Structures are given as C-alpha cells and as structure tokens.
Amino acid sequence: MNIIVCVKQVPAKDAPLAIAGNWIKESDIGFEMNEPDSYALEEALRLKEKHGGEVIALSLGPERVKQTIKEALAKGADRGIHIADDNFAQLDPLGTAKLLAAAIASQKCDLVLTGLQSDDHGFGQTGVLLAGLLNLPHATLIMQIEALDGRLKLKRELEAGWFQWIECPLPAVLSIQSGINKVRYATLKGIMGAKKKEIAVVTRESLGVAIEPTQKIERIYVPTKTKKTEFLTGTPKEMAAKLVEKLKFEARVI
Amino acid sequence: MRILVVTEQRQGKWNNTSFETLVAAQQIAAATPGAVSAAVIGKGVAPFAEELASKNVAEVLLVEHDLLESYTPDGYCVALKQVIETAKPDLVLFPHTYQVRDFAPKLAASLGKGMIGDCVGFRSEDGRLVFVRQMFQGKTAADVTFTGAAPWFVSFQSGAFRADLLAAHPGGKAPVNAAQVTLSAGDIRTKPLELFKEAKSAVDLTQAPLIVAIGRGIKAPENIVQAEALAKALGAEIAASRPICDEGWLPMDRQIGSSGQTVAPKLYLALGISGAIQHVVGMKGSRTIVAVNKDQNAPIFEIADYGIVADIFEVMPALTEELQKTKG
C-alpha cells in the first residue's frame, strides 16, 4: 500500500508568538511537526509495516519545513516531497489543498493521510478538501484502520462518546484523530538513514496550480478578555458559603 | 442577504449547536439585513422541520431521501449542492460539529467556494461581514473575510451563540417546503455501518445543566471521590480534562475539550484545571464558570465568572457541606 502523508510544520508549542500583520514573526522561534500530523505519519508507518509499500511525506512551506520532512524520513518514511512556498501563510484552506492535491496527483498512491487539523491556522479542512479535489472517497476522525481486500474498515469518532464503523474503498483520503496510536521516536539509525533519502522539491509554478483565494485573514490579535472574574476570599468555609449564595441569587444557576 | 442554516440531528435527537447557529443567522440577518431559512436533512425528519418552523425563519427546507437516512459525506454533499443551487443563498451557515467538519469544506469546494470554519463570532462593517475565529490554538483571534462572490460558507463553534436567544416566529409558523434532490446509490462511496458507544455508561455531557470538572490538580485517582461527592451534592455530572482520562482515572466519555465533548452548561465548576486551550474550547460557552485553583495566574481564571484561589482539597469538602446544608 503506497501512502502519502501530509505533514505541516508549525510553531513549537511553547514558542512565544509575536504577531506581525496576519501571521507571526518567524525569527527567534522554534518549529516542530504539527502534533496531529505526527499521528497520521505513525499510522502510515504502521500500515506500511503490515502491508508493505511506500510512505511519502509531503509538506508545504518555506525552506524550514525540510526539517519536518527529514523527521518523517528518520522515523521511517521512504521519501519526501517539499512544495517550496514562502507565501504559504497567506494561502486559504482551498489554496493549500489545491497545491497538495496537485503534488499527490503526480504520484501513484492508494491512501492519503492527514492529521485532524494544524495547531497554527487550525482550519481542519485539508483532508476533506483533498478528497473533493482528487475525487476520492474520504473519512475523518479515524481511530482505527483495518485493511480488507481493496477496501478499508474504519472506526470513526463521533460526538458525545459515539463511534461508527464505516467501509471505504481504496484509494481514499483519511483524516486521523489524535490519540489513535502511540507515536514513535526516530532512532539514531533512522536519522542517519534519512540523510540518503530523497526529498523532491516542487513549486506552485512547477505544479501548474493557479491560486485564487476565497478568503483573507485581515489581521490576527490577542483576544480580549470577555469576562470580569469576581474572586472570593476568606476561609474555605466562608468561600464555599459565598459561592453558593452567588450561584443561587446572582448567577441563578442552582 | 439570504442565509441558509443547515441543521443537524442524529438518531431522533437535535444537535443543539444547530439552534446556536440559527441564533447566529438571526443576528446576521438583523445586522445586514436579511432573511433566514433552515434546512433539515435526512429521512423521516419532517417533525424536526415542523419544530424549526415555529422559530423566526422565513422558510424551512425539508431535504429527504432514502439515501440520506444515514449520514455519508458523499450523500450530504450531492444533496446539499442541489439545495444550494436551487435556493441560491448568499451565506450558508453550519454548526461546527464533527459531522460538518466531515463534509462542509468539500461541499463548498464543489461549488468552487471556500469555507471559514470554526468561527466564534461575526461583525458587520458597512454591510461587509467579518468573521472571527481562533488561531494558534486560541492564543490569537483572527478577523477573516470572504474575497470571492457568494455563496459563502461558515461554521460556528459550539457555545459561540446562546441557543436560548432563538426568536420564535412572529406570525405563528413558517412554511415547510420539500426540497427535491436526486441521488443514486452510486454517488455514495463509503458505507456507514453500526453506531456504538465504547464505554458502558457513556454519557452525553452536552445535555448536562451542571458540570463539575477535575484536572491535574486532583493529583491521584483516590481523590476523585471528593469531587464526586461535590457533584452529587450539586446534582451535577462529573467531567475532566484530557490528562485525567488519558491516565484512565475517569472514562474517556467524561472528557471535555477539543478531543472530548464540547459543553455549554448553566454552571461549570472547574477544580484544579489550569485552563489549557484544548480544554477551554470545550467549555468556554458555559453560562457561569467557577474556577478553583491554587495558582492565581492559571489561564482558567481569564474566563471564570467566579474565582477561588485555594487548595481544591480544602474547598471541595467545604462546598459539599454547604450545598448539603442549603438543600436539607
């Protein structure tokens, strides 16, 4: 089974964010593989170990995203594709998906995996849009994958504790739910081996994709605090009594 | 502006975020100005359409077909594309549910349009709509506008609008009109199988009016009994942040947050929860939020109505006793 897994590079979780227009200042902060995508990569590697085939790590962004592709290669992906694009932060979800879809269409693959959403833009649309653009069946929030003969049996997470089994023919696009597996670390051997693996570089121009944005992020800003917190003081007993009174007569919720 | 709200129900029950989205639509209609219609999609869902007709909407579209009995992304996309092409709305609104995430971006793309998803609010600036959503996991907000021609697709996060503000129909009832759609079995490539719950006592926390939630501050599983006693005295459901469920101290179906349930109860009492954004997105729509945490800088206090900076192990028994006293 040949699998393309889309991995995004995002600011590190603890990175201090300095806003610049509708994006952030990229100097002075660290970047890492988008955590939801790391689950998709892990799932791709496990499917390959079970069923054979090839795993291709695909990433869109500036030069720095090569590091994330290398991380995927170190963990066991066979090769990488880098859509080099310095202007990626200005792409809307559809534009991003069009570029990824063009790169995917140039490969022979049975399965495309994405994470649930990115920790930066957080659009959460890429997998579903890829399915639309590539005219493939899809499913999202996947918690388990069983490969049958030419099709997949999938466990989907629904809301409020519900799950559903669905069947999906191949080829297909799946968005993986975080927590589906336990993500591996790269080994030293993997890291050394990754140096010999190929990363193909393509661009908007070489893919022949014209982008017409459907939406624009005008600005980003620190959200204003909407609530004024009333702090209660005293001994635990006094605070408890005050709280019960507030909840009864002020908030009127009990 | 013509606004179409695509509502959601499953197994005979509304997804309540549908009503919040209707409120968003009514507010946008008041600001732009415009008219709201609502679509109900499925099979045998006429009673849902009748219920919506009592709300302040111009029209309810009943989209029924045998192949829409179970949700599939293909079935919904094919059917709703036809509904949108016929009804010609300027703005199509969805509740930002797991189901909507699964099909709405593709539906928009099938019409060559984009979708602004997971919005928490909107502004109307000289007739131009600006949608507000979160980025960087809630660390920043973003103002987003559409650049192309209508129809525009938007989904609103659970808790972004208050369902209890939903206005009733002024004249009694809106018309319910059947929207004819053509679907064939070949359109639907995935096959939905059985629905199931993993945990034995799976609970729907979204329906709970009162919730007591615990976080890392509970420290050990044997301490949970204290929070449960408090929940019992309050008549509340017990819930938790992700780490508690990952540890297996409470079942996964008690988890609130981006990977768990999204709730908006009347009262949310957060005990020893720091307020990481992954948790906050699941409960910030609560009417009244009480936070108890010994760290006065915990971000949970940013959204709390009432705060108690103290050790939860001192507050829990005192509060339980106080509640028992007032009840008795």
Properties at a glance:
heterodimer; A: 254 residues; alpha/beta; Rossmann fold; 2 domains; nine-stranded mixed β-sheet; two-stranded antiparallel sheet; globular; B: 328 residues; five-stranded parallel β-sheet; 8 helices; 28% strand
Write a concise synopsis of the structure shown.
The complex is a heterodimer of chains A (254) and B (328). By secondary structure, chain A is α/β, with parallel strands linked by helices. In chain A, 30% of the residues lie in helices and 29% in strands.
Description of the molecule:
- The complex is a heterodimer of chains A (254) and B (328).
- Chain A is α/β, with parallel strands linked by helices.
- Chain A has two domains: 3-207, Rossmann fold (3-Layer(aba) Sandwich), CATH 3.40.50; 223-254, no CATH class.
- Helices cover 30% and strands 29% of the residues of chain A.
- In chain A, strand 10 and strand 11 form a beta hairpin.
- Chain A is globular, with a radius of gyration of 22 Å.
- The N and C termini of chain A lie far apart (57 Å).
- Chain B is an alpha/beta fold and 328 residues long.
- Chain B has two domains: 2-187, HUPs (Rossmann fold); 205-327, Rossmann fold (3-Layer(aba) Sandwich).
- In chain B, 27% of the residues lie in helices and 28% in strands.
- Chain B has helices at 17-31, 46-53, 73-87, 98-110, 224-234, 242-246, 277-280, 312-327; strands at 2-6, 9-10, 13-14, 35-42, 59-64, 91-95, 115-125, 128-135, 140-146, 152-156, 176-178, 191-197, 210-214, 237-240, 267-271, 288-293, 306-309.
- Chain B has a nine-stranded mixed beta sheet, sandwiched between helices. In chain B, strands 14-13-15-16-17 form a five-stranded parallel beta sheet. A two-stranded antiparallel sheet of chain B has the order 2-3.
- In chain B, a hairpin with a 4-residue loop joins strand 8 and strand 9 (140-146).
- The longest helix of chain B has 16 residues, at 312-327.
- The N and C termini of chain B lie far apart (54 Å).
- The model of chain B has no long low-confidence stretch (mean pLDDT 93).
- At the A-B interface, helix 3, helix 4, strand 9, strand 11 and strand 14 of A face helix 3, helix 4, strand 7, strand 8 and strand 9 of B.
